[in-house]
Amino acid sequence: MASVLIVEDEPFTRQNAEWTMEDLGHSAMVASDLGEAMVHLSAPGPIDALFVDMRLGTLALGGYEVANQAITLRPELRVLYTSGTPLTAEMTDRFVPGGQFIQKPYSPEQLGISMGRLLD
């Protein structure tokens, strides 16, 4: 299966996403902010997908900034964005190429379907 980096600043949501990825057979790494994400992204080893909250704490562009820096280091990375805010054209204009979206709150089943589509 895939190796997924989850970047989410809300601990409960981050842990649920991690458990869901593991239940689906994926290897999950977690980060709560850009700095932690960069540690994973800079380390050797595969990362197939980035699952990132669009609104991360103190970052002006939150998940967009994480995704943009991640793609610079790993151009083949696939990105699944999430937010509690309904998706708008302005939001999708900031997605990295091929970026996809899942609306919060999502069920484990919905996350599994979205990640499956992303990885296909």
What does the model show?
The termini are close together. It is globular and about 35 Å long. The protein contains five helices and five strands. The chain has a five-stranded parallel beta sheet, sandwiched between helices. It has helices spanning 11-23, 34-42, 62-73, 89-92, 108-119, and strands spanning 3-7, 27-31, 49-53, 78-83, 100-103. Helix 3 (62-73) links the parallel strand 3 (49-53) and strand 4 (78-83). Helix 1 (11-23) packs across helix 5 and helix 2 (34-42) runs parallel beside helix 3. The protein has one domain: Response regulator (Rossmann fold). The chain is 42% helix and 21% strand. The protein is an alpha/beta fold.
Order of helices and strands: EHEHEHEHEH
Tally of structural domains: 1
Residue stretches low in confidence (pLDDT < 50, at least 5 long) are: none
What is the overall shape?
globular
Distance between the termini: 11 Å
Sequence of strands across the biggest β-sheet: 2-1-3-4-5
User: Using DSSP, what is the number of strands?
Assistant: 5
CATH homologous superfamily identity: Response regulator
Output the number of helix runs.
Answer: 5
Strand content: 15-25%
CATH topology: Rossmann fold
Rg, alpha carbons = 13 Å
Q: Could you estimate the helical fraction of the residues in percent?
A: 40-55%
Mean pLDDT: 94
- Briefly note the structural class of the backbone: alpha/beta
